[in-house]
Design brief:
The complex is a heterodimer of chains A (442) and B (236).
Chain A: H1 4-19, H2 21-60, E1 66-71, H3 76-84, E2 90-101, E3 128-131, E4 137-140, E5 151-159, E6 170-174, E7 188-192, H4 193-202, E8 208-210, E9 220-226, E10 233-237, H5 238-244, H6 253-258, E11 263-268, H7 273-285, E12 294-297, H8 300-340, H9 342-350, H10 355-392, H11 406-432, H12 436-441
Parallel strand pairs in A: 5-10, 7-9
Antiparallel strand pairs in A: 1-11, 1-12, 2-5, 2-8, 2-11, 3-4, 6-9, 7-10
Helix pairs in contact in A: 1-10, 2-8, 2-10, 2-11, 8-11, 10-11
Chain B: E1 3-4, E2 11-12, E3 15-26, E4 33-44, E5 48-53, H1 59-66, E6 74-79, E7 82-83, H2 89-99, E8 100-104, H3 115-120, H4 132-145, H5 161-173, E9 179-183, H6 191-206, E10 210-214, H7 218-222, E11 226-231, E12 234-235
Parallel strand pairs in B: 5-10, 5-11, 8-9, 9-10
Antiparallel strand pairs in B: 1-2, 3-4, 3-6, 6-7, 11-12
Classes of the chains: A alpha+beta (442), B alpha/beta (236).
Chain lengths: 442, 236
C-alpha cells in the first residue's frame, strides 16, 4: 500500500500538471529532445554493437563458445567424427574443397577465391619445393594443367550437427540443412552468398566433385545463407558426405604445408570441459601433440565493447549536453511556476502539509513530467527505428529484424528521472522555504 | 482546575490553548521591531474571542503564532496543556492539520479546483489518508454545514465573495478542528454577507470549537464571547 504522503504528492502533482497544461507542455518540449538524444545514442550504440557482434559471431562464433582447431592427421578426423556424432552441445566442421560444374576442367576461380578476383591469379609453372621440419626438401610433381571450363571451386564444410547455435548464419533464401532426417544419396547443400553468386553468374552444370571422393555427385541446393565469408563456401551434412567419401581424408605433411588438406574445426557449448578433455586425451592417444590442439573461448563481446566504448562515450557526452539544456528548460519553468504558486504552497502548508511533502509535490510534478516525456521519447525512438528499418533495412542486412533495445528504454527512463530530479530540486527547495505567515498576511 | 470566564454560560475544564508572556521581535534589515511583548492569551473549548486593534498592532502576528505558522522569540505556548513552544516543523504541520482551521481575509481558493476540491485540499495534506468515498462525504458535510453543498462542483470564479468565503470556512472545518483562527474573514465582504459569515463561524463554537477572530469590525467583535484589544503589542 502507498503511504498517505506519497498518495497526496501524486494526487496534488497530477492536479498541478492538469492545471498547467501549457507550462507542462513547454517544459516537456525541451526535455523531450534531451531524453530522445539519450535514447537515440543508447539505441544506436546497442544496435551498432549488436550488428558488429553479429558480424563477428558469424566468423568467430557466439560469445562464450569454445572453439577448437585440430590438425586432420593421424586418425584425428575419425576420432572427432565419432565423438561429435549425434551431439547437440558440440559440432565439428570438417573442411575440404569441391568443384561444382564440368568435370576435369580448371575452375573459373581456381583455389576457391572470390569471383571478383577470378582469373587474375595467373599461372605459376616453376618447380614446387616443400621442406619438412628437419630441413629435408623435396620437389613436388606439377599437377597436370587442366583446360578452362564451366566450373567453380568452393570450400566445402561438412557438419556433424546444426552449427547455427554456435554461428548465427543469417538465412538469405530457401532453408537450412535438416539433421534429424535420414541422409540423402543426393547430398543437400547450402551455399553462402558468394557461392550462390558464382552459380548465378556462371551457370555451371549441377555436378559436384569433392576432393578425396570417389564419384561425382549431384547435389540438391536447399538454401543460401550469409556466413560472413568472402570466399565461396558450401555446407552439407557429414553423414551425406560419407556416402560418397567413406573415410575421412587425412592431411599429409605436404597438404599442411600447402595450407590444404582436411581442417577440423570444433564448436563446443560453454561448460563442456569434460568433452574437451576427453577429446584431447583421445587425440593425444593417437599421437597429436598437445601444442597442435588449440581450444579457446570466443570473447566477441569483450572485443566489441572496447571498440565501441570511446564512440559511445563521445555520443553520450553530446546527448547529456542536450539533456542538460532540457533540464535547464524544466528548471526555468519550475522556478516560474513556484513564483506563481506561492499562495497555493503557503496555503497547503497552512492546512497541515509539511515542508518535506511540499517539496515532494514539486518534485513529483517534475518527475511525472520527466517520466511522461521519457515515455514519449522512447515511443518516438522505437517508432523512428521501425521507420528507419523499413526505409533502409534492405541496405543493411545485419539490421533486419532488429528490435528496439530495452537498454535504450531504460536509459530514457533514467534520463527522464534525472532530468525531473535536477529540474525540480531547486523549485522544490524554494517551495518548501515559503514563509506561510508572510504570504497569508499579504 | 476549573476556571470561570467573562462569558458566564461557558465553563470548561482546561484551556484549549494558552500563551504565556509571548514576545515576537521582527528582525528585518533595519532596527529590530517588537511586534508582541509579553502577551498572555487563553482560549477554551466553545469559546469565541475577538481581537481588535489597529493595523500593525500585532493581531495577525499573534494569529500566526497561535496557528504555528511562526515561532515566538520568548514565552510559552501550551496546547491542551502540552508545551509546544519549540515544536519541530513536521509536528507543527501535523498539529496545524489536526487542531486548527484557518480562515483568511483573502479566500485563498485555487481557481483550477472546484469548491469541493478546494475543501478536500485540507484532507489531502499528507497527514493520513482516507478513501475517496469517505473524503467526499467529509467534504459534502463541511459544505452542508456552511450551506453551500449545492455549489460543490462550481469553480471559485463562478462564486460570489460570500460563497467563496464559505468554501474557505468549509475547508477550515472539514477536519473538524478544535480551534478556528479567522484573520479578518469579513474584510472583503459587504455587511450582510459579513454577518452571514460571522454567524457561520459562531455556529462552530456551539459544537465546542474555539474561535479566535481578528477583526476591525466592532459589530462583529461584539458577537464574540470575549473581546480583546491589542495595542503596541500588548492586550489592553
Amino acid at each position: 500500500m502507498l503511504s498517505g504522503k506519497f498518495r497526496s504528492a501524486l494526487v496534488i502533482g497530477g492536479q498541478g500538471i492538469r492545471a498547467r497544461k501549457l507550462r507542462t507542455f513547454l517544459s516537456m518540449v525541451s526535455l523531450f529532445l534531451g531524453v530522445l538524444a539519450v535514447v537515440a545514442v543508447q539505441a544506436g550504440a546497442e544496435i551498432a554493437e549488436r550488428a558488429m557482434l553479429t558480424d563477428v559471431e558469424l566468423q568467430s562464433g557466439k560469445d562464450g563458445t569454445v572453439t577448437g582447431y585440430v590438425p586432420g592427421e593421424k586418425g584425428a578426423p575419425g576420432i572427432v567424427e565419432a565423438m561429435m556424432k549425434g551431439r547437440t552441445d558440440a559440432v565439428a566442421m570438417i573442411g575440404s574443397k569441391a568443384i561444382i560444374g564440368e568435370p576435369g576442367v580448371r575452375p573459373i576461380n581456381e583455389g576457391g577465391m572470390p569471383f571478383e578476383y577470378a582469373g587474375r591469379g595467373g599461372d605459376y609453372s616453376g618447380p614446387q619445393v616443400y621442406c619438412d621440419s628437419n630441413g629435408t626438401c623435396t620437389e613436388q610433381k606439377q599437377p597436370e594443367k587442366k583446360p578452362d571450363g564451366q566450373a567453380i571451386e568452393v570450400s566445402m564444410v561438412a557438419l556433424t550437427g546444426d552449427i547455427r547455435p554456435f554461428k548465427p548464419f543469417r538465412p538469405v533464401s530457401g532453408s537450412w540443412l535438416e539433421f534429424d532426417t535420414a541422409p540423402s544419396l543426393a547430398p543437400r547443400i547450402v551455399l553462402n552468398e558468394e557461392a550462390a553468386k558464382g552459380l548465378r553468374q556462371y551457370r555451371v552444370p549441377g555436378e559436384m566433385m569433392i576432393e578425396g571422393a570417389t564419384h561425382h555427385v549431384s547435389p540438391q541446393i536447399t538454401g543460401v545463407v550469409q556466413d560472413g565469408y568472402f570466399q565461396p563456401r558450401i555446407y552439407m551434412r557429414l553423414d551425406e558426405l560419407r556416402t560418397w567419401m567413406p573415410a575421412a581424408a587425412e592431411t599429409t605433411e605436404v597438404d599442411r604445408m600447402r595450407g590444404g588438406g582436411t581442417n577440423l574445426e570444433l564448436y563446443l557449448q560453454p561448460g563442456s570441459d569434460e568433452l574437451q578433455q576427453l577429446l584431447k586425451a583421445k587425440l593425444a592417444g593417437v599421437g597429436i601433440p598437445q601444442d597442435q590442439m588449440h581450444f579457446q573461448v570466443v570473447k566477441s563481446k569483450e572485443r566489441m565493447e572496447s571498440e565501441l566504448r570511446i564512440m559511445r562515450l563521445i555520443f553520450l557526452g553530446m546527448a547529456l549536453l542536450v539533456l542538460l539544456i532540457g533540464v535547464a528548460g524544466i528548471l526555468n519553468v519550475g522556478l516560474a511556476t513556484v513564483g506563481e504558486r506561492v499562495e497555493e504552497f503557503a496555503l497547503r502548508r497552512a492546512v497541515g502539509m509539511s515542508r518535506m511533502l511540499l517539496a515532494g509535490i514539486v518534485l513529483a510534478e517534475t518527475l511525472l513530467t520527466g517520466l511522461l516525456t521519457a515515455a514519449l521519447a522512447i515511443g518516438a525512438g522505437a517508432a523512428g527505428l521501425q521507420v528507419a528499418l523499413m526505409m533502409f533495412g534492405s541496405r543493411f542486412p545485419s539490421l533486419q529484424g532488429t528490435a528496439f533495445p530495452w537498454e535504450a528504454g531504460v536509459a530514457g527512463v533514467i534520463a527522464g528521472l534525472i532530468a525531473g530530479v535536477l529540474g525540480g530540486l531547486i523549485p522544490a527547495i524554494r517551495a518548501a522555504r515559503i514563509p506561510i505567515a508572510t504570504v497569508m498576511r499579504a | 482546575m476549573t476556571q470561570t470566564f467573562d462569558q458566564p454560560t461557558v465553563q470548561v475544564q482546561a484551556p484549549l490553548l494558552q500563551l504565556n508572556g509571548i514576545t515576537k521581535v521582527l528582525k528585518g534589515q533595519g532596527e529590530p521591531r517588537t511586534i508582541l511583548s509579553g502577551v498572555d492569551f487563553t482560549v477554551h473549548a466553545g469559546q469565541s474571542v475577538a481581537i481588535l486593534g489597529r493595523s500593525g498592532s500585532g493581531k495577525s502576528t499573534l494569529l500566526s503564532l497561535i496557528g504555528l505558522f511562526d515561532r515566538a522569540d520568548e514565552g510559552q505556548y501550551l496546547l491542551h496543556g502540552d508545551d509546544i513552544t519549540k515544536l519541530p516543523e513536521r509536528r507543527a504541520a501535523a498539529l496545524r492539520s489536526a487542531e486548527f482551521g484557518f480562515v483568511f481575509q483573502r479566500f485563498f481558493l485555487l481557481k483550477h479546483l472546484t469548491a469541493a476540491q478546494n475543501v478536500a485540499m485540507a484532507l489531502v495534506n499528507g497527514q493520513g489518508w482516507s478513501a475517496r468515498r469517505k473524503r467526499r462525504q467529509q467534504v459534502m458535510d463541511a459544505l452542508e454545514q456552511v450551506g453551500i453543498a449545492h455549489l460543490a462542483k462550481s469553480k471559485p470564479t463562478r462564486l460570489s465573495g460570500g460563497e467563496q468565503q464559505r468554501v474557505a470556512i468549509a475547508r477550515a472545518l472539514v477536519r473538524q478542528p478544535r480551534i478556528i483562527l479567522a484573520d479578518e474573514p469579513t474584510g472583503a465582504l459587504d455587511t450582510e454577507t459579513g454577518n452571514l459569515v460571522v454567524e457561520v463561524l459562531l455556529n462552530t463554537t456551539r459544537q465546542g470549537c474555539g474561535l479566535v477572530l481578528v477583526t476591525h469590525d466592532h459589530d462583529h467583535a461584539r458577537k464574540m464571547g470575549r473581546v480583546l484589544e491589542l495595542r503596541d503589542g500588548r492586550f489592553n
